[in-house]
Specification:
By secondary structure, this protein is α/β, with parallel strands linked by helices. The protein has eleven helices and 14 strands. It has two domains: 4-221, Rossmann fold (3-Layer(aba) Sandwich), CATH 3.40.50; 224-304, Alpha-Beta Plaits (2-Layer Sandwich). Strands 6-7-8-3-9-10 form a six-stranded mixed sheet, sandwiched between helices. It binds adenosine-5'-triphosphate.
């Protein structure tokens, strides 16, 4: 069982709409679920993993409803973002306990296999209290893998990891994807998703904003209108010269800031145009700063596009 279908799914908490009419399909390989904080990624993952019921719509795995379906739970492993671990347990005890919960025939052997997969044998008999953040993450991962699920869901798995741990986890997730499993991980960092995911789903403010490979998502982000704040030795002359070019969509003189607010449509064209025009007219550029580069603004452009 490998294909998760999210069909017109919404989830609200009181009057907060965390997920708003999202439809997407997640198949084998590694998929990145990208979006700023509060976009609804955890809520979506919890619904995909059967931890949370959708308020509307359906989540199915190869056609079978996920919510309250034990048959389906057998195929899903989930690594939540925050999970209380019993610090006095060792990783081995923690993973064996989960194997027992799954009713596996040989919990010891299954736990040993899962701990080997995440390369945690060296510390498996130490209490979790003595682990680094990355080691805890790996213990959680072993616990999620103990029943050999075909679908693995991870909520912000790279948070708080050092570069070496990050590489290690990337390698592991890549391998699992190559084996034909469905691996989905959430992140708010495009570069992280880019390095690992062959497919990206973007969510913003509870809504599905875009999907495609990283080239497509990158292009959507660079092709959006860019806003700059520019200060120069002659703002009026600069504005007149820039507006004559097609890559400049709008210019406003901001008296308070004593600067130009420029909206460019063609990112590459504009970054070439601005210094050239300034040079040709003998205008000195004092400040050139992007004024809307927050992740939220980049993503919300995708939603309104
Ligand atoms: N149990 C809950 N009760 C009330 N509101 C909730 C609950 N869970 C999530 N929300 C709200 O739903 C929205 C989406 O939250 P969610 O945690 O799914 O986003 P996220 O993309 O995972 O963000 P983060 O990366 O910050 O965890 C937020 O506004 C959040 O405050």
């Amino acid at each position: 069982m490998t294909t998760l279908s999210i069909d017109h799914v919404s989830r609200w908490f009181g009057n907060v709409v965390a997920v708003n009419d999202v439809t997407m399909t997640i198949g084998p390989g590694v998929t990145g679920l990208l979006g700023p904080n509060g976009a609804g990624k955890s809520t979506l993952i919890n619904m995909m993993g059967g931890f949370l019921a959708p308020s509307a719509g359906t989540v199915t795995l190869d056609g079978a409803t996920v919510w309250r379906n034990e048959q389906v739970y057998r195929h899903i492993g989930i690594v939540p973002e925050r999970e209380a671990m019993y610090d006095f347990l060792t990783a081995r005890e923690f993973v064996v306990a989960n194997a027992e919960l799954h009713g596996l025939a040989d919990p010891g052997a299954a736990a040993a296999r899962a701990l080997a997969t995440v390369e945690m044998e060296f510390a498996q008999d130490r209490p979790v209290a003595t682990y680094s953040k990355g080691m805890r993450q790996r213990a959680k991962m072993a616990s999620a893998l103990v029943h050999d699920p075909s679908v693995l869901l991870l909520d912000e798995p790279f948070n708080g990891m050092d570069p070496r741990q990050r590489l290690h986890l990337m390698e592991l997730l890549r391998r699992m994807g190559a084996e034909g499993r469905t691996v989905l991980f959430s992140s708010h960092i495009l570069e992280e998703v880019e390095q690992l995911a062959s497919h990206i789903e973007v969510v913003v403010a509870g809504r599905h904003a875009a999907s495609g490979d990283f080239r497509k998502i990158r292009r959507l982000m660079t092709d959006r209108p860019h806003r700059y704040l520019v200060r120069s030795s002659d703002d009026r002359a600069l504005a007149a010269a820039l507006i004559a070019d097609g890559s400049t969509a709008a210019i406003e003189l901001d008296w308070k800031e004593r600067a130009l607010r420029i909206q460019a449509i063609d990112f590459a064209g504009f970054t070439e145009l601005l210094p050239r025009v300034a040079r040709e007219r003998g205008i000195r550029l004092y400040t050139v700063s992007p004024s809307d580069e927050s992740l939220e603004s980049v993503f919300s452009y995708l939603v309104t596009a």
